[in-house]
Design brief:
The complex is a heterodimer of chains A (about 260) and B (about 190).
Chain A (H helix, E strand, L loop, with lengths): L5 H14 L4 H23 L9 H8 L3 H11 L2 H11 L3 H13 L6 H17 L22 E6 L11 E5 L5 E4 L15 E6 L2 E9 L4 E7 L8 H7 L1 H9 L3 E2 L8
Parallel strand pairs in A: 1-6, 6-7
Antiparallel strand pairs in A: 1-2, 2-3, 4-5, 5-6
Chain B lengths: L4 H9 L13 H8 L4 E9 L8 E7 L9 E7 L12 H4 L1 H6 L8 E2 L8 E2 L2 H19 E4 L5 E11 L6 H14 L1 E5 L5
Parallel strand pairs in B: 7-8
Antiparallel strand pairs in B: 1-2, 2-3, 4-5, 6-7
Classes of the chains: A alpha/beta (about 260), B alpha+beta (about 190).
Chain lengths: ~260, ~190
């Protein structure tokens, strides 16, 4: 099972931000976002005598406390459009913010940056606590998260201690960051299995990251190959390989789920 | 005019050319994109050709499907989803890529003459004819019609067959019929592996 800590994600984002001029802005912001997500997670985790119910309506009074922290972090370090949106949301009523989170919870969209960013640590805590979302009635399919029904954000080829059993693929949920096992050589969007329709695009610049694309549905996601580089943090390395997303977009592929940088 | 939250967020955040969906500048990333040396591989599930365990493998083939490009196998690994081997491979299966790519693969028949220190290329027809002459000569000279007790044997003890675990059922059928028909009794196909 894939296990990453918020701290390891933050460190990885800051490390990669320092190494690359091209993605410095993206990763520096992402590191700050991860920090505030970690604060949310820690806040939820450390509340004495409280466990989430799995029903967002009931858990919102607790989660809501941390929403301004996210908005202020984005206002201070995000790009102009996000900063302006954050300012607007800081002036928005509590009811409107609740409604925004409800809508994202019930009908997830990768274009709802703030709701996705706020709900991710909450959903992660639900997954770690083993408390299933009770009010998230999404279709359960093999290529959707078995815990919360979310879309896959990325794929991971994992390495095991016994290296001869390595190479199995997991998908990571974009909502709760749960990783679940999913077959190789199958499209994560439409289930296409014909090898001639599935393309895997690699480059030496990102040896452990690849585009997994399907010519039937014209969707893709990025795969992080831990058998090539075991120190990668999939959630962050996926963001860092932003140029691969642009390459895929230029060739007419649509990403299954945009990440929190909008790529 | 009141601007609803939905309208504002949608207007503010829909990405345009040069920015991501959330407004990040992408010019430096675009520059990096132009320099990427992208190669395409295909992954194909197959079965290891060696023994009867029939482990699953995934064959990685390099090529962009262009008609003037010959696909090139670049990697073979165990199929982690296969119920038999779950991604593991024995040493023979692990070296399948070498079956295809090793530059020491024999691609033509060769013969080493008595007393020679090297191998000479030989044409297929010449090789088959020479083997046929040797088989007939050896069988004619060493055929055992009756054994020491006078029982009918009709066997040849000086010719043997060494097959291999990659031989197909069809090849083994023909080899079995031919060898038994000749009377050869030393017949090894590694079929037990």
């Amino acid at each position: 099972m894939l296990k990453e800590s918020w701290e390891s994600r933050i460190q990885r984002a800051e490390c990669l931000a320092a190494k690359s001029d091209a993605t410095n802005e993206l990763l520096a912001f992402y590191a700050k976002l991860l920090r505030v997500q970690r604060e949310i997670h820690e806040y939820l985790r450390s509340r004495r005598g409280w466990l989430p119910s799995g029903y967002l309506e009931q858990d919102l009074p607790v989660l809501r406390v941390m929403v301004p922290a996210v908005l202020r972090a984005v206002e201070s370090s995000g790009p102009a459009a996000l900063a302006e949106a954050a300012q607007f949301l800081l002036r928005t009523s509590e009811a409107e913010l609740d409604q925004m989170l409800f809508e994202q919870w019930l009908q997830p969209s990768d274009l709802q940056f703030f709701a996705k960013a706020i709900l991710q640590p909450y959903a992660r805590w639900l997954a770690e606590s083993g408390i299933r979302p009770g009010d998230r009635d999404l279709e359960r399919k093999e290529n959707y998260c078995p815990f919360c029904g979310g879309c896959p954000q990325l794929a991971v080829l994992h390495a095991r201690e016994d290296s001869s059993e390595s190479g199995g693929r997991d998908l990571m949920c974009s909502t709760c960051l749960t990783a679940w096992s999913y077959r190789r050589v199958v499209c994560a969007k439409c289930g296409e299995e014909r090898p001639g329709k599935l393309g895997y695009y690699n480059c030496p610049e990102y040896e452990h990251v690849r585009i997994e694309a399907c010519d039937t549905c014209r969707h893709y996601l990025k795969g992080i190959d831990l058998t090539r580089f075991g120190w990668a943090i999939p959630l962050v390395d996926e963001v860092a390989a932003a140029s691969l997303d642009l390459w895929a977009r230029e060739r007419g592929y649509t990403k299954i789920e945009l990440n929190l940088i909008g790529l | 005019m009141d601007v609803s939250r939905r309208t504002f967020i949608k207007t503010a955040l829909i990405g345009s050319t040069g920015v991501s969906a959330f407004g990040f500048r992408l010019e430096p990333v675009y520059a990096q994109t132009q320099a990427l040396r992208i190669s395409q591989t295909t992954e194909t599930r197959s079965t290891c050709p060696y023994c009867s365990v029939s482990c699953g493998v995934i064959i990685h083939t390099l090529g962009d499907k262009a008609k003037n490009v010959t696909p090139q196998v670049v990697h073979v690994e165990g199929d982690p989803d296969h119920p038999i081997n779950r991604g593991t491979l024995c040493p023979k299966g692990s070296s399948l890529e070498q079956d295809i790519l090793n530059d020491r693969r024999l691609l033509k028949p060769q013969v080493r003459r008595p007393g020679s220190d090297h191998w000479d290329d030989i044409l297929w027809d010449d090789a088959i004819n020479e083997i046929a002459r040797w088989v007939k000569k050896t069988r004619d000279e060493t055929f055992i019609e009756k054994d020491a007790e006078g029982r009918t044997a009709n066997r040849v003890e000086t010719i043997g067959w060494i097959g291999g675990c990659t031989d197909t059922n069809e090849l083994n059928y023909l080899a079995g019929k031919f060898m038994r028909g000749m009377g050869a009794c030393y017949y090894e196909t590694q079929a037990r592996v």
